[in-house]
């Protein structure tokens, strides 16, 4: 993902969605940063991996990673729905259809 786009998403979510705002816990230590939470959500979406896989390098528990994913998707819809999440235009549909006809590859990877 483009770094500028990623940082725009992180900034937008941390400004508008309370879950993505970094807070102190009961001991006074800072919790997870907005960058950690967004990175976890994007990794889960991009790679389709299990929620406990981000624990190794982002230090997030499975339940926290799932919360990140849930809040991320809700936040993206809330913040960017009118800018990016729109219905397909006839041109979009034609482009997508042409792409699939040209590649002629099914989901299992065999050519038809």
Q: Could you tell me the number of beta strands?
A: 0
Structural class estimated from helices and strands: mainly alpha
Q: SSE order, as H and E? A: HHHHH
Q: What can be said about the biggest beta sheet?
A: none
> Can you tell me the residue ranges where pLDDT is under 50 for at least 5 consecutive residues?
none
Tell the overall outline.
elongated
Counting structural domains, the number is 1
Rg is: 18 Å
Give the amount of beta strand, in percent.
Answer: under 5%
What gap, in angstroms, lies between the N and C termini? 31 Å
Considering DSSP H and I runs of 4 or more, what fraction of the residues is helical?
55-70%
Residue-averaged pLDDT: 86
Note the total helix count: 5
Plain-language structure description:
With 112 residues, this protein is mainly α. The protein has one domain. The chain contains five helices and no strands. Helix 1 crosses helix 4 (62-80) and helix 2 (34-47) packs across helix 4. The radius of gyration is 18 Å and the shape is elongated. The two termini are 31 Å apart. The mean pLDDT is 86.
Summary?
By secondary structure, the chain is an all-alpha fold. It has helices at 3-16, 34-47, 55-58, 62-80, 90-103.
Tags for this entry?
112 residues, mainly alpha
Write the layout of secondary structure elements.
Layout: H1 3-16, H2 34-47, H3 55-58, H4 62-80, H5 90-103
């Amino acid at each position: 993902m483009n770094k500028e786009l990623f940082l725009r998403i992180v900034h937008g979510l941390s400004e508008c969605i309370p879950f993505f705002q970094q807070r102190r816990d009961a001991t006074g230590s800072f919790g997870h940063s907005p960058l950690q939470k967004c990175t976890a959500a994007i990794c889960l979406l991009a790679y389709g991996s299990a929620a406990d896989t981000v624990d190794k390098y982002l230090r997030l528990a499975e339940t926290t990673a799932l919360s990140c994913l849930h809040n991320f998707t809700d936040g993206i819809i809330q913040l960017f729905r009118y800018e990016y999440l729109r219905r397909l235009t006839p041109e979009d549909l034609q482009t997508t259809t042409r792409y699939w006809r040209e590649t002629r590859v099914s989901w299992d990877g065999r050519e038809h």
